[in-house]
Design goal:
Length: 475
């Protein structure tokens, strides 16, 4: 039962209430029931204030979460309902506008990050998805198998994760040890496994936490002399997932405790999933017996991303955000930002936020401007000279023609290609590029870029040619 409330604000409270109900309905469809219940159910509409819809949540934690994960979506949905609403303010509000009868025993709910989203579910309908006990850290609703893009570098880890999610504790897959560099999707895969198991049959109790949290809990238990309780509650889970295990290096007592918990759970036929930044054998400083134990299930690494994977991820994320990002922009980002997925995603999010904020389409120029700082840091240092040389060679013209005044098509076209590639592959500005091509004006460069874009669209052989040049320059 959802309550919509629009507390006395223009245009008409009832139409606003209906719009709000539709928005919530849409969100619920988009994110799924479990996610909706965890994060969004407690949202209420406080009213419309000028061009701003004010959405209220009961805690700062929920507010921050909703703001960062659903803020853009809320705004877009409001815009669809009512073009006059241009912003959405997500705030903490003490009370819901429409009082709900208090559930007995919940008179003074604890406002705490871990229990809050769960306390919202008093009717038991989603029990299967709830972790029992308060072991688990909240799962990120975006980190599901659906949103995980599979490619060569991660297909093995992904297949293992799927397998564990479908059949926890199957022989050969216990423990599952996922490792790889930062920002490559370890946490994403772990949450995906947890979501899948919680959402599946069997009412399994999944506890996901960081190794840091594990240690923190353990130490707290030691202090309050409740280690027995700690052990018991931990051993009652069906699936234990510990993220970033490298954190336990040098923390001998915690390692010891983890080792015992680990053994007890595996012996009881429970699934363990662990992630780290290195393989078990490379985790120096981890006790040998633990290392051996960790390595005896399935060890899967996530490799650095490839261009193809980066491109697919960008496309998937743009589609999910319902923002039109031109292919050229995605290609540009996939070429430029090669460090990890987190940075790639960060760059795309910034573009999308900018486009939303100013109501402008995402373009290559815009992208280069907005992401200037990131791009500088990732500059592959392909120089304009190199581009000119390669392109001249390729079209069999003289290097000096790159900056000459000749206008014959046979030299003008390759020159335009070189300008286009300079724009795509370096972070030089249009005027800078113009200067390097015989002191041409920035509008000439702009024209070249759009001309080449047009030609590439119209003529696939030409497009392939340019692509080929680009690849050569990138390597
Ligand atoms: P790690 O835990 O390995 O440091 P994360 O799992 O936190 O990395 O991933 C960083 C970000 O990149 C997350 O937002 C995650 O959703 C995203 N990401 C990583 N790999 C993929 C992928 N294959 N498909 C979609 N998103 C991904
Ligand atoms: Mg992580």
């Amino acid at each position: 039962m959802e309550k919509q409330a629009a507390s006395g604000s223009a245009p008409s409270p009832s139409s606003m209430g209906e719009a709000w109900a539709r928005i919530r309905g849409r969100l619920r469809e988009e994110v799924g029931e479990a996610e909706y219940r965890t994060w969004l159910r407690q949202m209420t509409l406080a009213g419309i204030d000028g061009d701003e819809a004010v959405v209220v949540l009961p805690t700062r934690f929920l507010r921050d979460w909703v703001r960062s994960h659903y803020g853009d979506r809320l705004r877009a949905l409001w815009q669809q309902e009512n073009a006059a609403v241009r912003r959405v303010d997500v705030r903490v509000g003490a009370e819901r506008p429409t009082a709900e009868p208090a559930t007995p025993g919940e008179a003074a709910p604890r406002r705490d990050a871990l229990t809050e989203p769960l306390a919202a579910r008093s009717n038991g309908a989603a029990r299967a998805q709830e972790p029992r006990g308060d072991w688990s850290a909240p799962l990120d609703p975006r980190f599901t198998f659906d949103t995980f893009v599979v490619g060569k570098p991660n297909e093995f880890a992904h297949a293992c994760a799927r397998r564990v999610a479908e059949k926890p504790a199957s022989p050969g897959f216990n423990p599952l040890f996922l490792y790889g560099g930062v920002g490559l999707g370890k946490t994403h895969l772990m949450h995906a496994i947890a979501w899948a198991i919680r959402g599946g049959e069997g009412q399994r109790n999944v506890a996901y936490m960081s190794a840091e949290k594990f240690m923190y809990r353990f130490i707290a238990a030691l202090r309050s002399q409740s280690t027995m309780e700690f052990k018991e509650s931990l051993r009652s889970v069906d699936v234990l997932m510990v993220d970033d295990l490298q954190f336990l290096i040098g923390k001998d007592n915690t390692q010891e405790e983890f080792f015992h918990t680990f053994n007890a759970l595996v012996d009881a036929g429970k699934q363990i999933v662990v992630s780290a930044d290195k393989s078990p054998s490379d985790l120096n400083g981890l006790e040998d017996r633990l290392r051996t134990r960790l390595g005896c299930g399935m060890v899967a690494d996530i490799h650095a991303t490839t261009y193809e994977l980066r491109l697919s991820i960008l496309q998937a994320k743009a589609t999910a955000a319902a923002v039109e990002v031109p292919k050229g922009v995605n290609e540009f980002l996939a070429h430029k930002i090669t460090s990890n997925v987190r940075e790639l995603e960060g760059a795309l999010n910034r573009l999308i936020a900018h486009a939303n904020l100013f109501g402008r389409a995402v373009t290559l120029d815009g992208a280069q401007e907005v992401l200037h700082d990131i791009l500088r840091a990732h500059d592959r240092r392909v120089t304009i000279e190199e581009i000119q040389r390669k392109v001249a060679e390729h079209y069999n013209i003289r290097l000096t023609d790159m900056s000459s005044a000749r206008r014959a098509r046979a030299v003008a076209r390759p020159r335009q290609v070189a300008m286009y590639l300079a724009k795509q592959l370096t972070s030089r500005s249009l005027p800078e590029i113009g200067r390097r091509f015989g002191n041409r004006d920035h509008t000439t460069v702009m024209h070249a870029v759009s001309r080449i874009n047009e030609l590439m669209q119209a003529d696939s052989a030409f497009a392939e040619d340019v692509e080929l040049l680009r690849r050569m320059l990138e390597n």
